[in-house]
Amino acid sequence: MSDSNLETTDWVLGQLEAIARNADPQNQFYPRLTQSLLPLLNADCVLLVIVLEAKPLVLFSSGNSPDPESLQAALQLAFAQHPPSVRLDPNPVDPSSPPPHRALNAPWISVRFPKNNPSKPLAILARFANLPSHEQLAGARNLLDALAEIAELREVYVENHRAVGLWKQAILRSEDLTNAQSHPQLNRGVVEALRELLQADRVSLFRKDHQAASMIACSGAASIDSNSTTVQELERSVLSLFQNNEPKLWNAADHQPQSPRYRLLLPWPSNADALAHGLLVEWSDPQATIDRVQRASNLLPMINQAWQYQHRWLCLPPRARAQAIGKSASQAPSGRFPKRLASLALLASLVGLAMIPYPFYIQTQAYLEPTTQQFIHATADSFIEELLVAEGQSVQSHQPLVRLRAPNLELQIEELAGQILALVEKKNGLRVAVNQLSANNSDLANQTRLSAELRLIEIQEKHAQEKLDFLEKQRQELLLQSPIQGIVVGGDLSRELSDRPLQRGDALFRVADLQGPWHLKLLVADRDGRYVQQALLKGPIDIDWGLENATGRGLKAKLISMRPEVDQRPNQGPCRSATASIEQSQLEQPAIGAVAYARIPCGKQPLWFIWSRPLVEFLQKRFWFNSSP
């Protein structure tokens, strides 16, 4: 296999594994698997098959459709009693034989899964137009094994996601069937229960009557009109089920655009005759076909068993039923034991589900920010004297932005200038006096006093000049310049800053480089910071995020750091700021401050903890405060 094929195969396996671990919410795993296998294996046909009511049913197919005889042989091979993980066609061709003999048959290879539940198997089958070499066949086997492991992983995640509440609904629906008082009520209860459990658009129950099929119940309809065109069309479609006694899945939208798109025909066994009843399930949405068919495989035996028991019970004469009910009522204490046992089994199942580890996510609010940006702050208590830029204007580094006016600073400078001028005049007068006394050596005392006073005035002048230089430097800083190249970001600057008294440190606006890299600022609630901090110990975290104005588009980012300080936010409460790097290619026109929502994976936690986390944390805090030191 070439390097390009290896790279493509790894990419496909990675994409499928990501979908599987996310529980396949859009039901795109198996269509993508079958479509990807065609070019990877260079196969002629790829099938996904499930066993439903002890009969194989093709769910997805890609490539050329196989002939019925070849397909039937391949299905028997895939679901043999003790098959190996991968098998060849029942009539394999020896790869070492001459080419004319090798082209006589088209070989099949198959793999069956899941291994942890062999009673509900699925299988992937691939057919080659020509028999491949030993190396190609070995590579195909290895690839099918790898895909079967990922598909088994998908089944585990989907089953865990599906099991929550599903079996409880099925048990409740089965109990409702046991309370039916007539056959029409029982049949209506079956179709309504299956419509809810299988999320179907319509479920119909049929009974074979000589060489025709008659509808006896339909979901959403209290009575059946045998003269209706829809009823007659459905009865003709179901008649083939009684002839073949096999499940059948097909697309009916091509012939009847107004009817549901996908139809699934199933035999509905009864105690008297397995061919006496049939079930038709119809869906309009093609995305969840695999999930709903798997639900049917799991739930139909339970619902059918409850229906059979009640159907047989209702076939008894009313007097016999009344006597049996009276007899069972007298033995009520012993009759409560099975219900109590079923309740305990249901409770144990719920406890087991609650202990299943499940991905734990922290939901946070976030906003977009450019990585390179600087806020412009007031350097002194001042007013705006002149605004040199406007909002959205492009500026260069060290370009003047705002000229401030500080009255107190100007007053101090004028006072110092006058003080220095007075000291200079006084210093000049003392120098003249010292020079006159120097000519007369007799008055040494006055000469010494004047020299000391002159030295003191020179020192005062020097200090005043240094203070004046410092204030002049502050005056120069009143002309605010851009620290970076970028665009001025703010509101209506002329309206917001005009005649506004400023204090030192007030933020006026900011300059941002919108062409450079961007990052995501996340506001992690302080109560969630501990989980995110623990996850960061293992390195950067791959997170999912999306803009509030485009929630249908999921984006990727990498959380790299979180500040230890806690800030009090007006709306969010105490929060910790975290930074995530993003690829700018994901956004066509990023906007500063655009609101987004992010989901941070923080490992796995049991389902009971995720469901009751607020209560658990409250109890932890309560016991911590009450614990002895």
Description of the structure:
Strands 10-18-22-20-19-23 form a six-stranded antiparallel β-barrel. It has 16 helices and 23 strands. 45% of the residues lie in helices and 24% in strands. It is α+β, with helices and mostly antiparallel strands. The protein has four domains: 3-162, Beta-Lactamase, CATH 3.30.450.270; 179-327, GAF domain (Beta-Lactamase); 373-508, no CATH class; 517-626, Efflux pump adaptor protein, beta barrel domain (Elongation Factor Tu (Ef-tu), domain 3, Beta Barrel). A hairpin with a 7-residue loop joins strand 19 and strand 20. The two termini are 66 Å apart.
Could you name the key traits of this structure?
about 625 residues, alpha+beta, Beta-Lactamase, 4 domains, 6-stranded antiparallel barrel, 23 strands
Whole-number count of domains: 4
Beta-strand content: 15-25%
Sheet with most strands: strand arrangement: 10-18-22-20-19-23
Count of alpha/pi helices: 16
Whole-number radius of gyration? 41 Å
Q: What is the structural class?
A: alpha+beta
The best one-word shape is elongated
Which spans of ≥5 residues are poorly predicted at pLDDT below 50? 84-104
Secondary-structure arrangement, i.e. CATH architecture of the largest domain = 2-Layer Sandwich
Task: Tell me, rounded to a whole number, the average pLDDT.
Answer: 78
* CATH fold type of the largest domain: Beta-Lactamase
Query: What is the C-level CATH assignment of the largest domain?
Result: Alpha Beta
> What is the number of strand segments?
23
